[in-house]
Design brief:
Blueprint (H helix, E strand, L loop, with lengths): L7 H16 L15 H6 L11 E13 L2 E7 L4 E7 H4 L1 H10 L5 E10 L5 E12 L15 H6 L1 H7 L1 H23 L3 E2 L5 E2 L11 E4 L4 E5 L4 H9 L4 E9 L11 E10 L3 H20 L3 E3 L5 E3 L5 E4 H9 L9 H11 L9 H13 L7 E4 L11 E2 L2 E5 L1 E6 L2 E8 L4 H12 L8 H8 L5 E7 H9 L20
Parallel strand pairs: 3-5, 6-10, 14-15
Antiparallel strand pairs: 1-2, 1-4, 2-3, 4-5, 7-9, 8-9, 10-11, 11-20, 12-13, 15-18, 16-17, 18-19, 19-20
Helix pairs in contact: 7-9, 10-12, 11-12, 13-14
């Protein structure tokens, strides 16, 4: 990887400045600063009468400097935003002003103290009474503050992207606020937040390849979890009626615009509920995010298309969507070979060894799901797809389930949980095929002790944030996405 900035000469100059400061007895890395306000809070504290303005103490990274003889302007960046500062020689003293001009570089961290005023252009500015360098930056910011343009550098050196790219900062602040809002919403609904094991003897709850590791103390193989589901259901057995977890899952599979092997999931389970109860829950959750965080129900995609999260959400059965797309009324009576031949004509690539239901699901995932831009509950999926759900009372070939699709992708699957332990074993054995030994017997043992009827739902936090921020790639909302390590020199 090439360095996003040519720092060889500037690095040497800044190291020399640092050496001079240390020789004079000043060590910038030994400083601390008692901050009273973030930048935006300081701006909000401005009052018309400057004499009544409170003393403000801020701190941040210097991102711009404009020296003008006996007075200068600079701008600092902190977690909340930026603040303009005004530095006068006669106000902070000749020595301090010379230190500011000669020793402080763009990228350095400073602590500042003073009072607020408005410039002739109307910008709230901090007139300094005091300034201290609190950390010296030896390397400059990327491309003289125009930001990173190399994708590899953006993801490997996210800290530089956050400094120089306001959109990136906004998206990651929104991610944090969205997760906080979800927690508040569920807590208010009397759900209990819990933590379940990440290292598991059997990685169940989904059909995915796990990451494996050797547990030295127990001398056996363990897996990083691929789903949160089975341990959360154990808690329903144990009498916790409303539980949720926001945590990391790990699937040893591909990387793409929509997939990262390490990702964040919310899973929520409610006793004495079902998949329709989960519909109400997810609607309420997203409405709350729109109200408290986004302040709008409309989301503009990266291509300019607007998604409306308010109003009524469409509900459609999986089978109806398949028939609508294929225009083949007898599709579900066809043989697997007939469906494969149809897919070949439509240009849909399907593994020739795929089972019948998998062929149909290829049609849904590759042709139908990408068109579901506005919120759509796709219900009553084939029973083979989700062995942990209840069979539909009105159609034994389907299950009581929905997939909430927005922006052309699944955001939240949910279903009425299977709580018949004998039927659950049959469904899991059917899914496992010859690998029956991988069934989580401890989970089935728990289910045999009795689990109440329940609704359960999973929400991919990363996909939700992609939707709500309007970005085009999962890498733009994961702070440190999975990347191949750089070769060592």
């Amino acid at each position: 990887m090439t360095n996003p900035t040519d720092t060889s000469d500037l690095f040497a100059v800044r190291k020399a400045k640092l050496a001079e400061m240390k020789e004079s007895g000043f060590n910038p890395y030994a400083q601390n600063w008692d901050r009273s306000h973030f930048s935006t809070e300081a701006i909000d504290a401005w009052v018309e009468d400057e004499e009544a303005s409170p003393v403000v103490r801020c701190a941040g990274r210097v991102i711009a400097v404009r020296v003008m003889g006996k007075a200068s302007f600079a701008r600092i960046l902190d977690q909340k935003g930026t603040l303009q500062i005004y530095v006068q020689r006669d106000k902070i003293g000749t020595d301090a002003y010379q230190f500011f001009k000669k020793k402080i570089d763009i990228g350095d961290f400073v602590g500042v103290e003073g009072t607020l005023f408005k410039t002739k252009t109307g910008e709230v500015t901090l007139r300094l009474d005091r300034m201290e360098m609190v950390s010296k930056a030896l390397r400059p910011l990327p491309e003289k503050w125009h930001g990173l343009t190399d994708d590899d550098a953006i993801y490997r050196q996210r800290y530089l992207d956050l400094i120089s790219n306001e959109d990136s900062r906004r998206n990651f602040l929104l991610r944090s606020q969205i997760i906080s809002c979800i927690r508040r919403y569920l807590d208010e609904q009397q759900f209990l937040e819990v933590e379940t094991p990440i290292l598991q003897a059997e990685a169940g709850g989904a059909a995915a390849r796990p990451f494996t590791t050797h547990f030295n103390a127990l001398d056996c193989q363990f897996n990083l979890r691929i789903a949160l589901e089975l341990y959360l259901k154990r808690l329903l057995v144990g009498g916790f009626d409303k539980v949720y977890e926001i945590g990391r899952n790990f699937r040893n599979e591909g990387l793409s615009r929509r997939h990262n092997p390490e990702f964040t999931m919310l899973e929520v389970y409610e006793a004495y509920s079902d998949y329709r109860g989960m519909m109400k829950l997810v609607r309420g959750m997203i409405e709350r995010i729109c109200k408290d965080v986004l302040k709008t129900t409309q989301i503009e995609r990266y291509d300019g298309q607007v998604i409306e999260l308010g109003g009524e959400w469409r509900e459609a059965r999986y089978k109806d969507l398949i028939l609508e797309y294929t225009k083949e009324s007898e599709w579900f009576s066809w043989s697997r070979d007939q469906k494969l031949a149809w897919c070949a004509k439509d240009g849909i690539e399907v593994n020739p060894e795929a089972e019948d239901f998998e062929v149909t699901n290829n049609v849904f995932e590759k042709r139908i799901e990408p068109t579901l831009i506005q919120p759509t509950f796709v219900t009553h999926l084939p029973k083979e797809l989700i062995p942990l759900a209840k069979i539909s009372a009105d159609d034994p070939d389907t299950i009581e389930v929905f997939e909430l699709c927005i922006n052309g992708q699944e955001i939240a699957p949910a279903y009425s949980e299977q709580n018949d332990p004998l039927l659950q074993r049959e469904q899991l054995e059917r899914q496992a095929g010859e690998e029956v030994q991988k069934i989580d017997e401890d989970f089935l043992l728990a289910l045999e002790h009795g689990m109440p009827p329940a609704g359960g739902m999973g929400i991919g936090i990363d996909r939700l944030v992609i939707l709500l921020t309007g970005v085009s790639s999962i890498r733009d909302i994961i702070l440190f996405p999975s990347l191949k390590p750089m070769p060592k020199n």
